Amino acid sequence: MIHASPARLCVAMALCLCGVSPATARGDALEQATQARARGEWLAALAIYERLQADSPDDAELYRLRTLTLADVGSASRAWALLQARPGLFTADEAARMEADHVARLAVWGGARPLDEPRRLEDMRRAEAAALAVQAADTPRHAFDRLVILNGLEQHAQAADLYRRLRAEGITVPAYALAAAGDSLLAARHPEEAVEALEGAAEALHDDVDTQVVLAYAYLESGRHADATRHLARIVRAEPAWQREPGARTADANWNRYSAETNLAMVLAYSGHPGRAEAMLAPMAAMAPASSDLNAKLGAVVLQRGRPEEALQRFDVAHTQDPRNLDARIGRVDALAELGRMRRARRAHDALMQAWPDNVHARRLHEQWRHRTGWQVEASLHGGRGDADGPATASPLGSRDGGHALAVRSPLLGDRWRLGAFRSEQWAEFADATPRVRDLRHGIGLHFRHDRLEWEVQAARSDDRRTGPLANDATAYRAAAGWRFNDQWRARAEAGHNDADASLQARAAGILADTAALGLQWTRDERAGLGGEFRQWRYDDGNRRESLSVDGYNAVLAMPRLRFELRGQVHVGRGSRDDAPYFNPTRDAGWTLGADLRTTHWQRYDHAFSQQFGVALGQSWQDGFSAQWVPSLGYRHAWSLGYGRSLDYGVNWSRPVYDGQRERHLSFDVQLHWGQ
User: For the PgaA membrane beta barrel domain, which residue ranges apply (predicted)?
Assistant: First the structure.
């Protein structure tokens, strides 16, 4: 016996009274649904199928049509579930299409912003599992979805390899997959390939501002700074700040314009114009103080301008507003480390790496952290030669001079301490002394830095390798301390017994010296600064020599591959004895104005090669002699060997004047620095 619901019986009776059979009505409804699907009116067709299947839940054809329409309307997950329940109703092509749609939908959800960090990649991992389950089909569509998934999982090297394989096979990659490929190529540090992929994606997805922004960064990392700036500036000009729909009473913010404009500011900052970037972002942050993204971006620019304390405030605000903001978390680690608050920086670093272990920016920060907290090595070598216009040189450097130094510091201990050891030698040749005067030192040191305070103590054994009454074999001590008042002002004090900076001429006569110094430094921003120092030498023969100097610099031109800087110095000095057996004018003074031009000829991320040309001209005056012009020239090569690692070397030529006698001095030096 067949039982029917009261509602269904009522419908059937109504149709019979009107002279329309249920079969005819069903056929008409199916025809209406077919026409709606042909017109792309998926929701109208779906409504018809839903109504008909409610009447005939066991109808296989209705089940099939309803499932296909769900797939058409974008309900990929629901269509996939219905397909799995009754797979025999669908052709192989239909099943493959719905499988691919299901994987793609999972990938889209995987790319959405998570509610909490621990579950950040769960949806994308489900997409990966689904893709692996259907990868036997090995169709281009599956490969494209796989590429998007690998990008979302931040497996950028694998995504780049898959993209290259597709291109090698002559397969045309659609725009959405090109965008993912370009992002992965950029993250894997292949910016030129990324540009090619992203240009194709950006042309097809011209309304997708995220792809346009990634293309700008690909230009930037390819060294095409002007192209990156022009690209984003063009989008900013084309997009209004506010959008108003017809008839709407209020306007909505245009987020495409916001994204293009804020990232244009960041591109300018990375192109050597952080001042312009700050001028763009600061008013926006003032209008929207609750924006985590704006606070994080402005913090990054302020940090680049040399104001870490102000930057940390921005990063802290951004992190409080949105703990998931990755830029804010990375910025906090950098700012805390710059301020010497390494314990807090380490905690922030460890939490970041636990939450984002595979993120390319987090990994880069971790690499920098290892160099910041690891071993530090500094080595240098120099040599020079001086010739006098007269019969003999009066230079405190002698006719020839040179030396070397090697200093090693341990990795950071307790987030504040470093142990160190060093070896150094200074030597010079004087006509009226033994063939060569040496100051050879071996020593150890302890360095401390925390927040505003930094200090260091050293102890060394000094030996000039001579015998007799003029031999100098003594212990040397040195202590130095620095205090940071704020982002602009710093002070420094130091004192040394048997100091290495004392005159080698005095050492040749068996005379050693203690020194003491006070310094103050003001930094306006990343382009300009001013410093002053007062120093006193207390020689064993009772001579007290004092000097006061002020020096400053200002970069009048700063571009990605070009920097032109003006510098200047003034100094005055005096000595208490006029009969010392070493160069010791009772009164002297001088000034110098110079310019440095630095050109970068090759750069690849943290590796670069630059040349530097320097020229300076000034006057020196000494009591008892007239003022004399003193020119100098310099030329250097600088190699950046990675983050915190550098090698540079150069030659310097000058025409100094000592005791009224003009001389020539030519020197060469090389320096190696390893570890920040």
Answer: 395-674
